[in-house]
Amino acid sequence: RCVEAFYIYFHAGRVEEPYVSITKKRQMPKDGYSEEIEKEVGQAEGKLCTHRSAFSRASVIQAFLGSAPQLTLQLYICVLQQEVTVARSIFMVLSLLSIVYGALRCNILAIRIKYDDYDVRVKPAAYLCIFLWRSFEIATRVTVLVLFGSVLRIWVFLVVLLNFLGFCFYPWILFWLSKSPFPENIEKELSRVGTTIVLCLLTFLYAGINMFCWSAVHVELSDPDLISKSQNWYNMTVYYIVRLMENAFLLLMWYIYRTDFYLYVCAPMLVLQLLIGYCMGIFFMMVFYQFCHPCKKLFSSSISEALLSCFKLLYFICQHHRSTLLAGKVAVKSPENTDEARGSSKTIDSQNRSLHQSVSSNA
């Protein structure tokens, strides 16, 4: 693909192309209106776009199935040896940049797939926000897994396995609950077995991405494009809340079971720095979706409104739970109160009877 892409690029425009295709894209709405623009795309440009899309997907695969395990392994070796060599630090920085670049490409691909009808133009500020968001998120996630695995080596495999299997089977569970027919239009030459293998590989990659960061592409097997094009703020909010709680729990386990090996480290300060780093990633994510997203004008609701509705839902759930607890306490106390009232009424009746007898005897 690289050789063909360079060949097409350097020979473009020298020979007149036999035919061109016309694509229609809509601009971002201005004052509530969006214009449709027609553009002629030649054969060479179309092939270059195909190659660029393939390169973007390959960078995502290489980042999360190659660089992410490599970064985790190198950091684990540095922790065990209590030494960071120059060569290893260079490799770790390159691996981290590769993962961040793959996550960035995944974000851009998700935007272009979801808003395929629009002419999407990503500004430099958006790239900067995505870079900072993914850098903080991935770096802190890898560090938390390495620290936890350095003291609880067996349990880290259980954590990784549960995360991976959960995200791998999640799209299949949604597909089974939707009761949709099995997708047959992925590729005409593929059989049913081949289609199943392709879908399994897709969910495998989806689980690998979500192991380290939020996947901007939400796999939906019931959709013809296999990707959900709706912006679901609730799934993102739930993911980051659960992931923050998981990171805090893993750091707490590391803090409790840490050995004398970590005497040279200020453990409370390290835990605080990692949690703040992950919160910084969430902060830049919110800045991106609130201010720098190229298609923010197409959102039915902003991320601030979605977070506000989530907090209202949590507040309503807490209030409902509190009211049910109070109702249960009142229901438990009410029989006791009735028994006490009956006992007091019986004592009053007995006192009245004794008083009546004494009066009658005196008479």
Automatic annotation (TrEMBL):
Keyword Lipid metabolism among UniProt keywords: no
InterPro entries named in the record: XK-rel, XK-related_adapter
Main localization of the protein described in the UniProt heading: membrane
Keywords annotated in UniProt: Membrane, Transmembrane, Transmembrane helix
Domain of life: Eukaryota
Pfam family, one: XK-related
Biased composition (Polar residues): 344-363
Membrane association type: Multi-pass membrane protein
Membrane-traversing stretches: 86-104, 125-148, 154-177, 197-217, 237-257, 269-291
Keyword Repeat: no
Chain residue ranges for the region called Disordered: 336-363
Subcellular location field: Membrane
GO cellular component, one term: plasma membrane
Family, per entry: Belongs to the XK family.
Record protein name field: XK-related protein
Species annotation: Dryoscopus gambensis
